[in-house]
Amino acid sequence: MKKKLALFGAAALLFSSSAVSQAQTAKKDEKSSPGTEMKEGTKDIGKGSVKGGKALGKGTADFGKKTAKGDLGGAGKAMGKGAGEFGKDVGKGTGSGVKKIGKGIGGATKKAGQAVTGGDEKKDEGKKSEAKSPL
Fold it and tell me: What's the pTM value of the predicted model, to 2 decimals?
């Protein structure tokens, strides 16, 4: 039982850390573009997963130690605390990340719409026609 829980915690930590290392490859000096926003969003999700994975791993380790000593109440409390912090950190990172990803998608959609409709050109033409109007 202890080995299964320890393996689960280790797997969660490895998965989370690989997500962060991939997200950290984004360049820091890029302009704020839809792609950059999405990269930053995935980075936040990865950071939350890593932090949560660490908390879950600690809770799992404490669970194993307390179970070995016969403290089943303390073991359950340790596991619950680790799982609770895991959920909180993953939720926080995911919320922040999804917000940035949504901002990036919105920017990409806006750029695509302007490219298809010539949105910027129409705004400029409207300003010119207003200036020529005698009223």
Answer: 0.54
- Burial class from Cβ neighbours inside 10 Å (0-12, 13-18, 19+) for residue 70 reads exposed
- Domain layout of the chain by residue ranges: 2-132
How many CB atoms are closer than 10 A to CB 17?
A: 15
Token pair 């719409």 in the structure block, residue: 113
CB atoms closer than 10 angstroms to residue 4? 9
**Secondary structure in 3-state letters for 45-94:** HHHHHHHHHHHHHHHHHHHHHHHHCCCHHHHHHHHHHHHHHHHHHHHHHH
Distance CA 48, CA 133 (A): 56
What is the pLDDT, as a whole number, of residue 85?
92
